[in-house]
Amino acid sequence: MSKRFTWLEKLELILPGFSGYKKRELVREDDRLLRGYLVKLLTDAKNYLEEAASIMSEYDFTLAKKINTLASNVRLASDKLRFAESGYAPHYNIVKVDLPNLEEMKRLDEELVSIVNEILNLSKSVKEAASVSTVKVELLNKIGEYLSKVDDIMGRRIKVLRGVG
Hints:
Distance between the termini: 25 Å
Oligomer: single chain
């Protein structure tokens, strides 16, 4: 993310011993902002699914139950993103989180953008289809597949931060 730096922040970026810390902190901040954006999108998707489940409960209770379960899974993915590790490690920790690890973590989070956008779009489609009571199970299965991809990326993210992957 591009940011305008104050003169003090510019100084922090060139001071020996402090510049590495500042660069890592900037990557962590970028990551936090990106995850916040993704959490908002997933929350919107969850809300669309909950509205669809509410509408469908009048026509097909079993399908409404599936949609509600899917909304819970979207909420779980959102919470995993919201509370994901930020790349801080205690001073005496065996595994150090360096700039390459943080960059890889941020790259993995950037992969999530297109996946989460697909989840949001499919959730909108489910809500629209529910308003005319024609929700197709294929839509729900696709959302489930995308949620599996989110879970996979979050697992890879944890491995990167723990020095395993």
